[in-house]
Amino acid sequence: MDLVQFLLVLVVLAAVVAVVSAPLRSGRAAEAAPDEDLGALEAAKEAKYREIRDAELDHRTGKLSEADWRALDARLRADAVEILRRLDEARG
Amino acid sequence: MDPRRKRTLRLVTALTAAFLLAGALAYTSFSASSEATEPSKLARDAKPGRSYQLTGKVVAGYRHEGSTLVFRVRDRDGTASVPVRYSGAVPDPFRAGREVIVDVRKRGAVFVGEKDSLVTKCPSKFSKSEQRS
Amino acid sequence: MATLGRACLILALAICLYGIVASVYGARTGRREWVASGRRSVYALAGVLTVAFAVLEAAFLRSDFAFDVVASHSSTTTPNFYKATAAWSSQEGSLLLWVWLLSLWSSLVLFAVRRRARQVQPWATAILLAFGAFFAGLTLFLADPFAVSSPAPLEGSGLNPLLRHPSMMVHPPMLYSGYTLFTIPFAFAAGALIARRLDAEWIAVTRRFSLAAWFCLGVGILLGARWSYVELGWGGYWGWDPVENASLLPWLTGTAFLHSVMIQEKRGMLKVWNVSLVLATGILAILGTFLVRSGILDSIHAFGASTLGRPFLVLIALLVAGSIGLVVSRRRELRSEHRLDSLMSREAVFLLNNLVLVGLAFVVFWGTFFPLISEALTGTKASVGPPWFDRYTVPLALVLVLLAGIGPVIAWRAASPAHLWRQFRLPLAAPLVVVGAGLAGGLGEHPAALVMFALAAFVLAAVGQEFWRGTLARRAMTREPVPVALLSLVRRNRRRYGGYLVHAGMAVLFVGVAASSAFQANRDVRMRPGQSARVNGYDVRYVRATTGLAGEKISLGAVLDVSRGGRHVTTLRPTRGYYPSTDPSLGPVARYFDGQATSEVGLRAGLRRDLWMAVEPDVQALEPFVRDADRRFGRAPPQLQGLLIAAIAERYRRHPAPATFRIIVSPLVSWIWLGALIVVLGALVALWPAPAAVRRRATSAYARRVAREVA
Hints:
The complex is a heterotrimer.
Chain A: H1 2-25, H2 36-60, H3 66-91
Helix pairs in contact in A: 2-3
Chain B: H1 3-32, E1 34-37, H2 39-45, E2 51-58, E3 63-65, E4 68-74, E5 81-87, E6 99-107, E7 110-113, E8 119-120, H3 128-132
Chain C: H1 2-29, H2 32-61, H3 68-73, H4 80-86, H5 91-112, H6 120-141, H7 166-195, H8 201-231, H9 242-267, H10 271-294, H11 309-329, H12 346-378, E1 382-383, H13 386-409, H14 417-440, H15 447-478, H16 482-492, H17 494-518, E2 521-527, E3 532-535, E4 538-550, E5 553-564, E6 567-572, E7 575-578, H18 590-593, E8 597-600, E9 602-604, E10 609-616, H19 623-633, H20 638-654, E11 659-667, H21 669-687, H22 692-710
Antiparallel strand pairs in C: 2-11, 3-4, 4-5, 5-6, 5-7, 7-8, 9-10, 10-11
C-alpha cells in the first residue's frame, strides 16, 4: 500500500515536472512575439464596432433621432477607420 | 466654469455626500445597536428599556408557556444566569448547554427577548474551539 | 491514500512558488519560455489539486474514518448523496475546494488568453498563483484535510443534518466559484496596473469571467436563501447575518463593475473607478471567505476556528495596501480619455447606479463589521439588527430598481428631451396604473412596498418596450416573422438583451421581496390535536400527530388541515427530525432527543401566496419516559433500545403534548425564485458565446464598410 502511494507520488511529480519544464526544455524562444499594441488595438476595434452596432440599434429602437444618430455614427466610424489604420501600421 | 473648478466642485460634492452617509450610518448604528453582554454583567447593571444582545449558554430545564419559551441563560464560563422570556422562532439546534445569542430588554425582573432574535451557535461537534473547551 | 493527498498539497505549494518566480522573471526579462512555464504551472496546480480533491472525495465515499475530517463530518449512516458533499462541510475540505476551484478557473482563463495580453498575463499568473500558495499553505499548515488517526474510529459523527438538503450540495461550490472567479479580474487588473497596460485589453479578456463570477455568486446566494426558507424553521430567506452579508458584498461591487466597465470599454472613461471597483471586489471575495472561515463575527454559521484569522488578516492587509499603492502610483496612466457628454445619457445612469450599489455595499459592510467597529471605539461589542439594515437598504434598493428601468431605454452619450418623452411615456403609464390599483386595493399602508411595485412595473414595461421595438426594427429590416425576429435580435445582441432580461428578473424578484416583507402574516401558536388557529383568513386545524423512524432519524410531526371560509385548501405535514447526539455521556435513548434537530416545513407554494408551516413538538413532555427507559434498559442490546425508541415515538403519536406551530401566510414569495430564474436565464444569454460565424460576418461587414469610407 505504501509502495503504491510512493509510486503514485512519483508519477504525479514526474508529470508536473514534465508539464512545467516543457517550454524551457524546447530551447527555442516561443513563437515570435507579436507587437504589444496589437492586442490593445484589437480590443479597441471590437469595442468601437460594438459601439457602432449599439448606436444603430439605439437609433432603430427610437432612442436616438435620425440627425443625432447620423452625427454619432459618422464620428464613430471615423474613430474605427483610425483604429484600422493604426492596426495596419502595427501589422506592418 | 473652467473644467478644473468644475472637477473640484464635483469632488467636494461627492465627498460631502459620502461623509453625510457615513455620519448617518455611524450615528444610527450606535443608537440602534445592542450591546453584547454576558448574563452576569446584565444582572448587575441592565437599564430597563435599553436593548442588549445577550450571549451565553442555555441552562437545562427550559419550558414552554403557551407559545412563549421560558429559559435561563448563564455565563459561558460561570454560573450567574438571567431569566429570559422569548416568543418567536426557536432555531433547530436550540438545546440546554448550547450557546445562544438573543436580543433582550429588561422588563421588571425578567428579560424579554425580541421576536425571532434568538440565534443558536452551531453545536460543538461542528466547531473546533468548543471541542477543545 | 492520505500520504498521496498530502504530497499533492506540498507539491501544490511548491508549484505555486515556482510559478510565481518563473512568471515574474519572465515578465521582467521578456523571456517568453519562462512566462509559458509559469502559465503551465497553473495547469500543473490544477492537476495535483484535482488528485488531492479526488483522494479526499474517495475517502468520504468509502467512509474511511482514518481521515479525521471524514470521521468528524460523515458516517456510514450518512446517505451516499451527502457523503460526497460532506467534504466541503468541513473547514479543511472547504479550503481545499476553494483552492481547487481557483486552480481550475485560473487554468481556464490563462489557456483562453495564452496568446493575448502578453504583458499583463505573466503578472496575473503570478497573482493567481500567490492566492493559490496562500490557500495551499493554509491547508498544509493550519487546516490539514489529510490528517489521519490511528486506530481509525469505527463510526463517524455524521454530516450536520441541517446541511442535508439538495441546495446545500450546490451552494458552497457555487459561492466559491463566484469568489474564485472574482480573483481573475482582480489579478488581471492588478497585472495591468503593474505592467502599465491600462487599455481595454485586460477588460476584454476577463469580461466573461467577471460575468461568470457574478452569476455563480448570485446563484450561490439564492440557493442559500432558498435553503434558509425551507430548512431553517424560521420562515425567512434573508436575515442580514454576517455570513450572508459577506457573500453579498462582492456581488454588489461586482454588479457595479459590470456596469461601469462598459463605460470604459466604450468611452475610455472611469479608469480609476473601474480598477478600484474590481480590486475591491476581489478583496471582498477574500474577505467573504475569511468571515465564514474565521468565526470572527457571531453568526449561526460561525465555525469558530480562530486559528485562520491571523493569516487572513495579513493577506487582506497586503491586498488593500498593494491595491491602493498600485492605483495611486499609476494615476497618470489612468486618466480619462473623454468626459461625460450629458447627464441625460446611459453613462450618467450607470454612474448613478454605481454610486447606489457602492453605497449599498458600504451600508452592508458597516452593519456587518459594526461589532468590531464599536469594540474598537467604545470597548463593547455591539451589533445592529435587520431594522437598521432595512432603514438604508430599502430606499437604496428603490433607487436601484428605478435606475434599472431608466438604463435600458436611455441612449448612450446624450438623449434629447423629445426622444426621452417618446421613450418614457409608455413605461411611465405602467407604474401609474399600479399605484392606482394599489391604493384602491388598500395597499396604501405600506408605501415602500407600493413604490417598489410601481417601480418594478416601470422596469418590466421599459424592458418589454425594448424587446418589442427591437423586434419590430429587426422585422422591418429582414421581414422575418415576429418570433424569429425576436430570437435573432437576442442572438445578435446577447449582452444587451441578456442584460435586459436580468433587469426584468430583478424587478420580479424585488416584487417578491417587497410583498413578502410588507404583507406577511405570521403567528406562533400552541395547539393540541383538534384545536385550530386562524391566520390571515386561513383556518389551520391540528388534526393529529405523526411519527416516523427512518435510518437514524426520529421524526415527530403533525397533520394540519388548512381551509378557508369552510372550504378545504390543502393538507400540510410539517415534521421535525431528531438525529442522535454522539455525546457518550447521554443515555442511549436520551441521546436521540439531545442531538441535532431539523425542520421539514409543510409548504404549499403558489404564485399568489405561500402557506408555510413548521412544527416544534414538545419533546420535554417525553422526558420522564426517556429517562425511565435509559435507567431500566441502559445496558440493553441496541435492538431492544430501537424498540424502546419506537415505543416512545408511538406514545407521542397517541398522546401528543401540545406542539408549537409557526404558521406563515406570505404573499408572492414564489416571485423571488421566479425572478431569480429569469435572472439566471438572462445571465446565461449574456454569457453564451456568440456563434463565431455571426461575429465574423458582422465584423467583416463593418470592416468592409469602414474600409470603403477610407478609400
